[in-house]
Amino acid sequence: MIARNQPYTAILFKFGVLVGLLYMPVLLFHLGTWFPFAGASGYLLWELGRLHRAFGEHTGPGNEQRSEQRREPTTSAR
């Protein structure tokens, strides 16, 4: 489900928290410092995909058909 009116600051905050959580193993196991940012970037890509699908629902061909069906009762009522 797409959360409406979710500010971008909330998404960036989640990204920062995820980087922080993924940074813990870096400190413990001395992994590369790029690891948390690479892992948290997956979250940003997932959010981008959700937004892309949400915009596709509003601009897709199914939306044109629904808008035409809404217009038909007003024209046939005359």
Summary, kept brief:
The chain has about 80 residues and is an all-alpha fold. It has helices at about 10-30, 35-60, 60-75.
Give helix % range. over 70%
- The N- and C-terminal alpha carbons lie at a distance of 39 Å
Structural class by secondary-structure content: mainly alpha
Order of helices and strands: HHH
Strand-residue proportion: under 5%
Major pleated sheet: none
Unreliable runs, pLDDT <50, ≥5 residues? none
Summarize model confidence as the mean pLDDT.
76
Radius of gyration: 21 Å
Strand tally is: 0
The number of helical segments is 3
**Outline:** rod-shaped
3D structure, described in words:
By secondary structure, the protein is mostly helical. 81% of the residues lie in helices and 0% in strands. It has helices spanning 8-29, 35-59, 61-76. Helix 1 (8-29) packs antiparallel against helix 2 (35-59). The longest helix has 25 residues, at 35-59. The radius of gyration is 21 Å and the shape is rod-shaped.
Features:
single chain; 78 residues; mainly alpha; 3 helices; 81% helix; rod-shaped
Helices and strands in order:
Elements: H1 8-29, H2 35-59, H3 61-76
Helix pairs in contact: 1-2
